[in-house]
Amino acid sequence: MLILYSYPELFGVADNNGYGLKVFAYLKIAGVPFEHRHILDASAAPRGQLPYIVDGSEIVGDSDAIIAHVARRYGADLDSQLTDMQRKLGLMLRRTLDDLYWVMSYSRWKDDAFWPAFSAALLAQHPSLSMADLERARSFNANRYYFQGIGRFEPRDAYARGIADLQAIASFIPDDGFLFGEQPSSADAALYGFIANIYFYPIETPLRQCVMEERRLVHHCEAVHAMAMG
Question: Which CATH code is given to the segment(s) 2-74?
């Protein structure tokens, strides 16, 4: 059976990282059986990043590569009915989510206003963790943010960037159905992976405040969540 390795759950969300949750949702919606193993140490993962899958003798990292593998191997292509333009729009959406990722992560690990609530939630849900573990991870992430660039932003400016991403995405969601029709696609799984990791977290960051104000983001997130967790 296919095994998905990804970060642990938090606040009832199956993975507290948008990329792992994206793969989880895709597998669930596509009806592909899998075992989900939650880990924190990514040293054994391809390129040292989660999520990754083990499928027989194959090990596949990167969320988009995993989805492509699943679509090919299991005939579970949620994008089979999309037009070429819709596929390209899906790619643009995923790239916008890549930008949003950094602001989301910044809100958890860097911003002193929200770090206490986030770290306390991790410690409460995962007793094997210690505060020393989290402080090491926080220091590691601070270096990542600095070299990526978001770590050089003041919080107000960082959140302005993420809010602009969220508002642009919200304008793209139809009033009814999913992004490209009545059935969800890989783009819907990707969007859910990130929005659920904001919406279901009871930590009132500016990103969550924005999501709560965008009815279409909330509706879409709840619809995909029901399919993925049902």
Answer: 3.40.30.10
